Amino acid sequence: MIRVSVVGAKGRMGSHVVEAVNGAADMQLALALDAGDDLTAITPDNTDVVVEFTVPSVSLGNVLALVRQGVDVVVGTTGWADEKLDQVRAALDGAPRESQTVFIAPNFAISAVLADHFAKVAAPYFESAEVIELHHPTKVDAPSGTAIHTAQAIGEARRAAGLGEMPDATQTDGGSRGQVVDGVHVHAVRLRGLNAHEEVLFGNAGEQLVIRADSFDRISFMPGVLLAARKVASGAYPGLTVGLDHFLDL
Amino acid sequence: MIRVSVVGAKGRMGSHVVEAVNGAADMQLALALDAGDDLTAITPDNTDVVVEFTVPSVSLGNVLALVRQGVDVVVGTTGWADEKLDQVRAALDGAPRESQTVFIAPNFAISAVLADHFAKVAAPYFESAEVIELHHPTKVDAPSGTAIHTAQAIGEARRAAGLGEMPDATQTDGGSRGQVVDGVHVHAVRLRGLNAHEEVLFGNAGEQLVIRADSFDRISFMPGVLLAARKVASGAYPGLTVGLDHFLDL
Amino acid sequence: MIRVSVVGAKGRMGSHVVEAVNGAADMQLALALDAGDDLTAITPDNTDVVVEFTVPSVSLGNVLALVRQGVDVVVGTTGWADEKLDQVRAALDGAPRESQTVFIAPNFAISAVLADHFAKVAAPYFESAEVIELHHPTKVDAPSGTAIHTAQAIGEARRAAGLGEMPDATQTDGGSRGQVVDGVHVHAVRLRGLNAHEEVLFGNAGEQLVIRADSFDRISFMPGVLLAARKVASGAYPGLTVGLDHFLDL
Amino acid sequence: MIRVSVVGAKGRMGSHVVEAVNGAADMQLALALDAGDDLTAITPDNTDVVVEFTVPSVSLGNVLALVRQGVDVVVGTTGWADEKLDQVRAALDGAPRESQTVFIAPNFAISAVLADHFAKVAAPYFESAEVIELHHPTKVDAPSGTAIHTAQAIGEARRAAGLGEMPDATQTDGGSRGQVVDGVHVHAVRLRGLNAHEEVLFGNAGEQLVIRADSFDRISFMPGVLLAARKVASGAYPGLTVGLDHFLDL
């Protein structure tokens, strides 16, 4: 049994994690802490892996403390700039236990991570590629970070394959052609009823390949979180790892 | 048997019309004329309906001449400004035969015409609506005229229903939110392999309605052309009619 | 203000109705009753419209009682055979108030009701039509009642238009061609993560029309429930009406 | 310049290959032969790679003869049972030139080959998976060989990952749940206007991944054919290779 503690256990994501851990046959919930609780209660004696879902302003502090206390951490909180990652690496260098692990993922939705990977693999083989992301209308930024990341991955793969610019005879577009990210047109739709969706379209003469990832609910992140907890608990990934794709067999 | 003559019979569209008329059990091909041929050969003695698919610069002249020669006309050529339509109406007023008919359609694709109609009907019942059009990358204008028309129809239907602005918390979008036509966001995708496609998305809390029209090939216009020829030949639509929706049971 | 009482207020649907009524600017919640509560508390003095979402075994009794108490009813409970509808009509004939109203809908999702209607309108214009419904894997029946209804509507519209059988050269299919309902192939997908979705595909040479309705969550029924409550409260639909399409401007 | 000869040059596929070779900057057309032409004209003196698109009844003989004449072959003709492949391998063992090459592909559509590969990679990460294939209504077999292959790949990947049966509470389905291939439900749609399309749906609680390959036209096979010709001409794949996936960077 993998003993999992949750930090941010009463939050939107954390409460789902508590439920998911309780529902997993190979896991048991150790400690469930939230703001105000004493983090030092989490030790290697009671916990194999901590799942941390809080807010960017406190997450770094939590992770550094947990590393010092000798436990492995899976981090779902966003906002990890390079400078913060360096601090985590430094903490891991001086960690009390051998091969201690921190895993950080900007996105735990397996479908989104796979879509991103597939887009990168497919990109060299198509003349055209565009990205459409669709979200709920209360999202304040457009396009989504995921869509920008996908577009950059496509752009990079095209350059590496020696592909030139995509065909496009458009002379006037009134803004309808979207934002160009690394040579790839990105379109953002905002629609009541949707949650978080991405569609990548690839085209050659006579054919199209479409890769679409739909996240209908934040519960969709749980399989990724549990997968990460298992991988981290296995001890096979000492040090800092960023991105769920490292834990998928791609 | 409806006797159909084709003007522009060697053109991209006209050649398909010749084939479609030859394949229709209730029609027979009368005259097939192209540039340089004598239009006066077409008369009520040999022709019930003329299908005219040429270019905007000669279409008006053709239609006026044909009306004066006493035949009914189905026009697929584009570029009909109001002033041109007035000339056609005037010609019809002085036409030699009783209840002579001219029918002009900006789009003969039944799926596109239905999609446009359905979008207008659905619009009052949804908080959000956006339009995505997708075309081959050699198209010079974006968004398509069809997409603009659909967006305007949605905008109008929303106003008539007393709906306000759509929910949209976007603060920065880098152009990814597309062009706003009458309050409706319109996105244009250009992809090798595609031909002409339109997708209209409607959303309410917890639900989505998607209407999509795909034209893979210009042969898709033929059922609409034949339908129009039959309706015009029926004599039930004297005068000028614009738009295939008038011939569908909506 | 429309005074709305809810019967079945603690149920899965009823609790959403209570919330939706509380959130509607033109409505106020009168009584919220559940199993065991006294239905006779609901009278014209405190209630304009009752929304009834219970179970088939008690719904008929509730509706008959409410009609006798002189209030109008919107019914979301399913399982209304013709014989039950006749009992409701009889009760309405002897109702205490003038032009009393009962409205019953098998489906309150506006997108599904519109999709069904659009399918019926489009059917006469296409050679081919098929229906794909997609649901969560805990659904016990396949295909969905909605998909069967849509297929029947398409079959009927084709017959009325004099269309023959659809083109299909299939010689062996191992069951992959799905169930044939009134000449229309119906396919049922069961996929974890989905809720209730229907896609209707229409095809002619060179073109396709796709109509898709997605219900991600039962909250999607609320706009339809509120719309029905407003229509019933308007007094414009005395007697029994079945089907949300009667309240849409189609 | 890669010198390419085409066998079956007047056929549906072969004529597209001739055109594609003529349009490729790094290739030149050597000989274009069709039924009745003398195959012995093709030799290493005039040809680097032969593309063979004929019919199953003559293809094996053609390939064996070409191998004996010392040229490399890309084969697009279908119908290659194991026993035939063994004959090709034997011919290659006794071939006149060092490292002679034969490449056979059941499918040259890059989008379809990628979709198949992606389905296999994604399969271990999802509770549910189903396959929908959609084709023109003149196809005599259902489901398509590609769909069966995809379903088998998914079934195999699920077993290898230790996944059990997919969740499915269906009690009665009237045939709507399609054909079960290796535990995976496969649905076949036949619709006028479509050509060859495959959609693979994967689902977990709260999320969906959709991979869709559309072949609108047989011209879609040309990028795959040219890619194969280049790979074969490179000399890097001596012997027999089956499947375009071997030439993609997956």
UniProtKB/TrEMBL annotation, chains A, B, C, D:
Pathway listed: Amino-acid biosynthesis; L-lysine biosynthesis via DAP pathway; (S)-tetrahydrodipicolinate from L-aspartate: step 4/4
GO molecular function: 4-hydroxy-tetrahydrodipicolinate reductase; NAD binding; NADP binding; oxidoreductase activity, acting on CH or CH2 groups, NAD or NADP as acceptor
Active-site positions on this chain: H135 (proton donor/acceptor), K139 (proton donor)
Location of this chain's protein in the cell: Cytoplasm
UniProt KW NAD keyword: yes
Annotated Gene Ontology cellular component terms: cytosol
Swiss-Prot/TrEMBL GO biological process terms: diaminopimelate biosynthetic process; lysine biosynthetic process via diaminopimelate
Residue ranges occupied by any Dihydrodipicolinate reductase C-terminal domain in the UniProt entry: 114-247
A UniProt-annotated Pfam family: DapB_N
Reactions catalysed: (S)-2,3,4,5-tetrahydrodipicolinate + NADP(+) + H2O = (2S,4S)-4-hydroxy-2,3,4,5-tetrahydrodipicolinate + NADPH + H(+); (S)-2,3,4,5-tetrahydrodipicolinate + NAD(+) + H2O = (2S,4S)-4-hydroxy-2,3,4,5-tetrahydrodipicolinate + NADH + H(+)
Domain Dihydrodipicolinate reductase N-terminal as annotated: residue spans: 2-108
Binding-site positions, NAD(+): G8, A9, K10, G11, R12, M13, D34, G76, T77, T78, A105, P106, N107, F108
Domain of life: Bacteria
Binding, (S)-2,3,4,5-tetrahydrodipicolinate: H136, G145, T146
Keywords: Amino-acid biosynthesis, Cytoplasm, Diaminopimelate biosynthesis, Lysine biosynthesis, NAD, NADP, Oxidoreductase
EC id: 1.17.1.8
Subunit structure: Homotetramer.
Role, per record: Catalyzes the conversion of 4-hydroxy-tetrahydrodipicolinate (HTPA) to tetrahydrodipicolinate.
Family: Belongs to the DapB family.
Protein name: 4-hydroxy-tetrahydrodipicolinate reductase
Natural source organism: Bifidobacterium ramosum
Lineage, uppermost ranks: Bacteria, Bacillati, Actinomycetota, Actinomycetes, Bifidobacteriales
Gene of this entry: dapB
